[in-house]
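Exercise 3.2. Students should predict the tertiary structure of the chain below and write it as structure tokens, then compare their answer with the key that follows.

Predict this chain's 3D structure.
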Amino acid sequence: MSSPVQGLYAITDSTLILDHSFIYSIEQAIIGGARLIQYRDKSHDKLRRLEQAQALLKLCHRYGVPLIVNDDVLLARQIGADGVHLGREDSDLLAARKMLGKDAIIGASCYNQIERAEQAVMDGASYIAFGSFFPSRIKPRAAVAPLSILKTARAQFDCPIVAIGGITPDNAPSLLQAGADSLAVVYGIFGQRDIFTAAQKYAKLFNTKP
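Answer key:
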């Protein structure tokens, strides 16, 4: 069976998606070709986050698309999400695996560090993510990752590799050619007027992936 971590990976952002159009916006991304959705909301409104995550999980499963929760292992377990994505300051990967179970999709941000990827894979990460490869509107101060890190990771690891950071349909092909299995996109999808068309432009790139 092929890995669920491949293709367009759409990441939500509460500053780009208005509450009243939350589900509609993400549905447009899925119809446009998103193969994985990450719920990312840095607000501290626990009830709102719970309600949105529950509604989003229903939407994703209706389309057969996995839902990953950013950072919050407890929320992921509470709603029965498909997995969680962990960054540098987030929960321990081994603890998250123990809490969510062997089948959960657990991703790890590795930034521009192969060493972090090695540790994440050793700890049982489902996928590893590198970036930022290009200037990012969402994280303008993010560490810069060289294209070569994808080639190195591709040669070293068997797990799926996700690229993130300032990715557009124009600069994405270089990431796919270097070995990325998935493109994680925030502004390039949800910052656009036509979310469906924006997602479609990224999704089409995978039809010609080498």
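Discussion points: The mean pLDDT is 94. The radius of gyration is 16 Å.
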